[in-house]
């Protein structure tokens, strides 16, 4: 091949150069084509050798992270055997013979320290036992699928041929008894994972009829599996949705009538005769005991996989009750789900899924937000691969419950994780889209329902009121109350779905009358000339309604979003705009409002009028914050200017456009690992805005014009700035300066000289002591009289 390639290359080069000269042979890694040809002729071929002991050790101790998966693997093998038997029975009606039931049974023997998994599947011949169990990584299931002429409809689990050896995670010896229709003899395979195994004819004959029994002789550290509850829990966890019934042998005590227990009574009578030292009971007590029911121990087969895999059925065939029961079984929730979506995904990866939205948020939902994994269970051919996956859903959707099942996921050999991260991204993308579509449908149904109610006639209003009393909140309103923080976090984190999430957000506004509304409704109510969506943040709605920053917007009848939640403002800042309208904080500088030409001219004149006051005030505040009483507060004043937003208050403090708002400052300061330097940088410079129409400001302007060194004016300016900080929601690091000013103002109000020195008050002398002595004498006389009487 190399020579041919070289010849073709030489020929092409010769044509291009129009030359008959041949190029020298190519040398790669020091070998020419001739050298490689000689090497190929004289090379010897050898097979890779595997040290069986080492290979078994890797499979048993390094492949699986959780030893309880042994039960998952053995039940999956049993399910495959049953599926093969079912497939053959469809082709040949006589295949099943006397063993017609397809089932898996699990039993344990506490005395012998063994667990047995029995199935009525296809079974194995002696050759199958040697080939399938004696060859590591030999998959009988894969061979079966390859041998199927038409492919069929068999739904099989096995892929790698190593699942059986997971039995050695908990067992130091494994015995496999098997009988198939092709071999008249029942055989026993045994191994201790020591690089050897034995196969022998079963001296007991045919005890199984058809099928396989795998018996594990447990290690000492695996004796906890000798428990009915442990076996049921493990079997139900991983194999709950296997299509064949799985039974666990359980011990129960039942009531038995006295007549049925005569033999036991006779034995008890003999024991009583032999023991002379035991006292006989009264006849009445004996009669009462005879009437009481007696207990008898019996063994029964209890099915553990009663819940069916409803995601495999068509949506039309599944009832509401079945969806509710299925949700409760996988989520352990006592409430029905709020909503669900059932779908089949096709394309690059095919899978079936049901996703549920809970009615109530878990109490610890946000406690471990950054480490909590998705609660959607991943199945492969109805076998649980993982209860929680990191990348199946983004963090903000970790409250969603459900299942994802696929037949062709690229699992690693341990079947505990996917090998290709790309596939996980595809699945995650489809799941997120379906969840958001479900939420969008809930929100749309609620809003359209509200519109329909407005269009209904007056005759139906009474009926509507009755319905509203029964169910005052819609499904979306209920969901939003429980999970709004998650959607806001999603809006902050999920760049690809931010626009979809923004349509689901709900906020209080100055016109919403205590109800949360969508951004679309806000846009519908916007004024024609309004170019921005206005918002403000604060501790509560009531506090924000009294904020000075809001005054001009109330006067102009402009609707403002009110954000009491700490996540609201970062969410809107990430959004930046909605439907082309930018979000603008009314608590920051440079808020632009519609103005007429006359208003603009008037404002320019007012600025010029107050320029002496604003310049003087800026110098005073610079001295106060840089070298005065507020030096340690970290407040930096950028400017003092005439305000367009104030109608009632004398002053207000706003922050720069890209700095933290007052609410954000509080949140950042409350962080345990806050960076003070970064906080002071991001806090932004403050702007003091003054109300030119307020009497206090007018008076202050007059005093400053009269004398810039007026001490009363300086103190008033300082107090106004500090009170404006507090009213605007900012914190004062050292309030002592403000407090001293307040005390002085209170003193003046009461007509007291605020600078008067403190004197100790004179306490009048105690003149009432003799009276107390007289009272004591009177009390003593009264006691003596009582004693005489």
UniProtKB/TrEMBL annotation:
Residues 257-273, 448-462, 763-782 have a biased composition (Acidic residues). Residues 66-222 form the Histidine kinase/HSP90-like ATPase domain. GO terms for molecular function: ATP binding; ATP hydrolysis activity; ATP-dependent protein folding chaperone; unfolded protein binding. Residues 257-294, 446-468, 754-789 are annotated as: Disordered. InterPro entries: HATPase_C_sf (IPR036890), HATPase_dom (IPR003594), HSP90_C (IPR037196), Hsp90_fam (IPR001404), Hsp90_N (IPR020575), Ribosomal_Su5_D2-typ_SF (IPR020568). Pfam families: HATPase_c_3 (PF13589), HSP90 (PF00183). The keyword Chaperone applies. SUPFAM superfamilies: ATPase domain of HSP90 chaperone/DNA topoisomerase II/histidine kinase (SSF55874), HSP90 C-terminal domain (SSF110942), Ribosomal protein S5 domain 2-like (SSF54211). ATP binds at residues 73, 77, 119, 124, 132, 138-140, 159-164, 212, 415. Residues 1-22 form the signal peptide. Keywords: ATP-binding, Chaperone, Nucleotide-binding, Signal. It comes from the Eukaryota. Belongs to the heat shock protein 90 family. This is Endoplasmin-like. It comes from Cladocopium goreaui.
């Amino acid at each position: 091949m190399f020579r041919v390639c070289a010849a073709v290359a030489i020929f092409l080069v010769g044509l291009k150069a129009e030359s008959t000269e041949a190029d020298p042979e190519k040398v790669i890694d020091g070998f020419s084509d001739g050298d490689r040809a000689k090497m190929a002729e004289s090379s010897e071929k050898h097979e890779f050798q595997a040290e069986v002991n080492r290979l078994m050790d890797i499979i048993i101790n390094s492949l699986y992270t959780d030893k309880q998966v042994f039960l998952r693997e053995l039940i999956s093998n049993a399910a495959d055997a049953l599926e093969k038997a079912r497939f053959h029975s469809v082709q040949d009606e006589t295949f099943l013979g006397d063993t017609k039931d397809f089932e898996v049974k699990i039993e344990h023997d506490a005395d012998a320290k063994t667990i047995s998994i029995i199935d009525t599947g296809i079974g194995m011949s002696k050759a199958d036992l040697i080939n399938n169990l004696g060859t590591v990584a030999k998959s009988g299931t894969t061979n079966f699928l390859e041998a199927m002429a038409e492919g069929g409809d068999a739904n099989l689990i096995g892929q790698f041929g190593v699942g059986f050896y997971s039995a050695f995670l908990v067992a130091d010896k494994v015995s496999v008894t098997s009988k198939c229709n092709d071999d008249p003899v029942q055989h026993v395979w045994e191994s201790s994972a020591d690089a050897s195994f034995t196969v022998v004819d079963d001296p007991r004959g045919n005890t199984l009829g058809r099928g396989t029994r795998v018996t594990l002789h447990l290690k000492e550290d695996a004796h906890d599996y000798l428990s009915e509850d442990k076996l049921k829990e493990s079997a139900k966890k991983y194999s709950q949705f296997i299509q064949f019934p799985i039974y666990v042998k359980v011990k129960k005590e039942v009531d038995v009538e006295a007549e049925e227990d005569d033999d036991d009574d006779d034995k008890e009578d003999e024991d009583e005769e032999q023991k002379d030292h035991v006292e006989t009971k009264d006849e009445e007590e004996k009669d009462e005991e005879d009437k009481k029911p007696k207990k008898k121990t019996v063994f029964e087969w209890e099915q553990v996989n009663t819940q069916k895999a409803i995601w495999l059925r068509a949506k039309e065939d599944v009832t509401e009750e079945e969806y509710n029961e299925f949700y409760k079984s996988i989520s352990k929730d006592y409430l029905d789900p709020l909503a669900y979506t059932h779908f089949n995904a096709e394309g690059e990866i095919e899978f079936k899924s049901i996703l549920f939205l809970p009615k109530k948020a878990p109490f610890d939902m946000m406690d471990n937000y950054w480490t909590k994994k998705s609660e959607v269970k991943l199945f492969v051919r109805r076998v649980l691969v993982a209860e929680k996956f990191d990348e199946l859903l983004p963090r903000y959707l970790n409250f969603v419950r459900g299942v994802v099942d696929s037949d062709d996921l690229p699992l690693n050999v341990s079947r505990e994780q996917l090998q290709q991260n790309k596939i996980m991204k595809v699945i995650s993308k489809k799941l997120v889209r379906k969840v958001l579509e479900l939420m969008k449908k809930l929100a749309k149904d609620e809003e359209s329902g509200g519109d329909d109610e407005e269009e209904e006639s007056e005759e139906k209003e009474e009926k509507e009121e009755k319905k509203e009393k029964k169910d005052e909140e819609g499904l979306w309103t209920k969901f939003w109350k429980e999970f709004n923080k998650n959607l806001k976090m999603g809006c902050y984190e999920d760049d690809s779905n931010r626009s979809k999430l923004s349509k689901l957000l709900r906020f209080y506004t100055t016109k919403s009358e205590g109800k949360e509304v969508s951004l679309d409704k806000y846009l519908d109510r916007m004024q024609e000339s309004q170019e921005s969506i206005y918002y403000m943040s604060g501790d509560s709605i009531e506090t924000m309604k009294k904020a000075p920053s809001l005054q001009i917007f109330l006067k102009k009848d402009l609707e403002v979003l009110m954000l009491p939640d700490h996540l609201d403002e970062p969410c809107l800042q990430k959004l930046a705009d909605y439907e082309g309208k930018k979000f603008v904080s009314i608590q920051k500088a440079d808020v632009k409002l519609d103005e007429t030409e006359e208003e603009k001219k008037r404002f320019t004149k007012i600025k010029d009028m107050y320029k002496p006051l604003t310049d003087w005030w800026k110098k005073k505040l610079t001295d106060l914050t840089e070298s005065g009483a507020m030096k340690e507060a970290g407040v930096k004043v950028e400017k003092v200017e005439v305000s367009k937003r104030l109608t009632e208050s004398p002053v207000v403090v706003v922050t720069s456009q890209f700095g933290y708002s007052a609410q954000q400052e509080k949140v950042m300061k409350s962080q345990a690992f806050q960076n003070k330097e970064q906080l002071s940088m991001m806090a932004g410079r403050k702007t003091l805005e003054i109300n030119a129409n307020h009497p206090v400001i007018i008076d202050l302007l007059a005093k400053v014009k009269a004398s810039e060194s007026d001490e009363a004016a300086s103190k008033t300016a300082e107090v106004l700035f500090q009170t404006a900080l507090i009213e605007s929601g900012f914190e004062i690091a050292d309030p002592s300066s403000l407090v001293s000013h307040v005390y002085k103002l209170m003193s003046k109000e009461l007509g007291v000289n605020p600078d008067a020195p403190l004197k100790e008050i004179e306490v009048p002398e105690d003149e009432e002591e003799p009276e107390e002595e007289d009272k004591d004498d009177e009390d003593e006389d009264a006691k003596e009289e009582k004693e005489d009487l």
